[in-house]
């Protein structure tokens, strides 16, 4: 079954604000708490004069969005520094110009939380809200954080398309659908770039993650990302 709709735009915003308030003070995962705070204290040379966010990073975007973009987790010196998902690192530098070109952001550059960037018709989030060591959260940490994504999608009751950046995001999206009461197809649909599956009220689309490992090697090109975002907009 599909999640119940939010009562009104005001209610939708209230729910998302409540989730954000809980996310930014979360201490469920001791290893992640220790890591994010250590990084924020020690910093790196190029950002030594900046104040790090050093907390869980909430979702960001348009509460009325019809597209949900799901990543993996904040980067240690990206979202963990700037307070916004996909901001302050090479992944964000690759993603936001594409979102802008697709009409999903008011400008192509994301600097940090509160910089005036606005997302249009898209909500950007991650299933793990804290920066993990080596960019690899433990399964137990993914499980602890999973309820936040479930509540986000439930609150974002206008969403029709979910774009999963990478296999972990794809699996997280499927678990989120199941947690919201949907019966998943068997066998479970496999992740692939351009993979597309209608599940309940949503269409799930797979896209290679915008990490440097993929963009530097051209496994994911700007043209490939543009095509995924254009498909999401069309749907």
CATH class reads Alpha Beta
Uncertain runs: none
Order of helices and strands: HHEEHHEHEHEEHH
User: Which second-level CATH architecture applies?
Assistant: 3-Layer(aba) Sandwich
Q: How would the global form be characterised?
A: globular
Tell me the distance between the termini.
Answer: 21 Å
Task: Determine the structural class based on helices, strands and strand pairing.
Answer: alpha/beta
Annotated CATH topology: Uracil-DNA Glycosylase, subunit E
Give the biggest beta sheet.
Answer: 6 strands, mixed
Specify Rg, calculated over alpha carbons. 17 Å
Mean pLDDT, to the nearest integer, reads 95
Total DSSP E strands: 6
**CATH superfamily label:** Uracil-DNA glycosylase-like domain
Number of domains: 1
Strand order of the largest sheet: 1-3-2-4-6-5
How large is the share of residues in beta strands?
5-15%
Helix content: 25-40%
- The number of helical segments is 8
